[in-house]
């Protein structure tokens, strides 16, 4: 399933305008899902993943580089919406990974831990944007909504830490929301893989392009 392309009549999945080329959608969704899942496990503190290092590999390469490449592939299709969303999230993951790498000196540039947490919160707030997507599918709308909620909670959690508080319930809640977000992203990826050319079944995604939301 692809971001923002037209839906095939009577079917529950999206098709591309260049049928001889591969659809970057499932790859983009998978990259987003896995990276979000690993980050969420870290935020929850499960399996003693208290250091962010385990997230960096996925953030820089799978969630970062691969999503940017998928975004460029969307541009090839003339899919501006898919390209913008996918490449932007790819850039977010790379930038987030760089912030967490000590060699880049981002955290060291701030006098205190609180100032650093406040700077991250401001940075995350800039990414906390819900992208209007009502003319794609319900599955994509739900995914972007949960991604928005996750970023919002992560922003709030960092603002709380910037005030010197060690209360991290918001960060833990962010992790649980992130796991849900990752599962929804994997669902979108699987929906894109289960096409009529390769499988006898397809996952419902609810085409919203046929609905008129104008008042």
UniProtKB/TrEMBL annotation:
The record's comment on protein family reads: Belongs to the acetate uptake transporter (AceTr) (TC 2.A.96) family.
Please give an example of a GO cellular component term from this record.
Answer: plasma membrane
Tell me where it resides: Membrane
Which GO terms fall under molecular function for this chain's record? acetate transmembrane transporter activity
Q: Does the keyword Translocase apply?
A: no
State which residue ranges cross the membrane.
27-45, 54-75, 81-99, 120-153, 173-194
Principal subcellular localisation of the protein: membrane
Transmembrane helix recorded as keyword = yes
Membrane topology term: Multi-pass membrane protein
Q: InterPro entries, alphabetically? A: AceTr, Gpr1/Fun34/SatP-like
What is the name of the protein in this document? 7683_t:CDS:1
The UniProt keyword set, sorted, is: Membrane, Transmembrane, Transmembrane helix
